Amino acid sequence: VLSTLETRFANQDGVGLLMERLHPEVLQWLDKHFFCEKGCQAGKAHVFNSPIFDARIDLWWRMFITEAQNPLQARSRLGATLFIAGLSIPAMQPSEGEEWSVQELEDYLASYNHLAAHGRKPEIDPEGFSSAWPRKLLAQLLQLCPSLQLTLHSVKRLGRQACSSDSEMGNSFSGMVSMRMRQMMGDDDLDTQEPPGFPHEMWIYLYAGAIAGGVLPGTPDHPYPLSPANSAVNSQTGWPQLDPQAEIPF
């Protein structure tokens, strides 16, 4: 996976293509689909729609939150990992030349079960993305094209909408589900040992990475491009999508 991604994107033309695919209109479409009740529901829909892949992300998060110095560092590591994981999905398709739509990406995520049809060959390396190489690859891409950092920061700002009304860690959807399951199973004594459930709005990084890698935006409920009435404003607040005064750091 790393060799394929480096060959395709770790050069001036390849990294430039990532930014071209994540232009403002695409980010506006992603915002609308990601937060809509008929879309991702800020990532929460994947608890049920893509339970295996969602569980894999939860395990990555548990490792990052344990090893990181603070939750913000854990979020940064998870964001980088999800972006590179998303980038790898279209890059590792068996048949090249056929671009997926976001609808097909979501169908793939819903069917993801570690193993291919015959239960022998892994579809996506389930362990490798929890190592440091995705973050190192992203750092390499940012060194080639520092402006990519602004694009990633825009994705970060969009994702932050989902946690504006709830505590980022304690009230995350997966955290509430985990707490309820432990109560049903009589495991209340484990509450102090259980790490917080991962913030589901971080799923937006995987979508952004997949689109940067070649997945075409658009679903039946949210066709692309958006109508002019929807393309200029945020779907939740009515405010402009991107802030030109935004700080740069990822």
Mean pLDDT: 77
| Major sheet attributes | none
Number of helices: 12
Task: Give the termini distance in whole angstroms.
Answer: 24 Å
Provide a descriptive summary of the structure in words.
With 250 residues, the chain is mostly helical. Helices cover 54% and strands 0% of the residues. It contains 12 helices and no strands. It has helices at 2-9, 12-21, 24-35, 46-49, 51-67, 71-91, 102-111, 133-144, 148-160, 173-184, 203-213, 228-231. It is globular and about 45 Å long. It starts with a helix and ends in a 19-residue tail after the last helix. 36% of the residues are buried. Mean pLDDT is 77; it is low at 165-192 and 231-250.
Summarize the structure.
The protein is mainly alpha-helical and 250 residues long. It has helices at residues 2-9, 12-21, 24-35, 46-49, 51-67, 71-91, 102-111, 133-144, 148-160, 173-184, 203-213, 228-231.
Features:
250 residues, mainly alpha, 12 helices, 0% strand, globular, disordered C terminus
Reconstruct the topology from this structure.
Elements: H1 2-9, H2 12-21, H3 24-35, H4 46-49, H5 51-67, H6 71-91, H7 102-111, H8 133-144, H9 148-160, H10 173-184, H11 203-213, H12 228-231
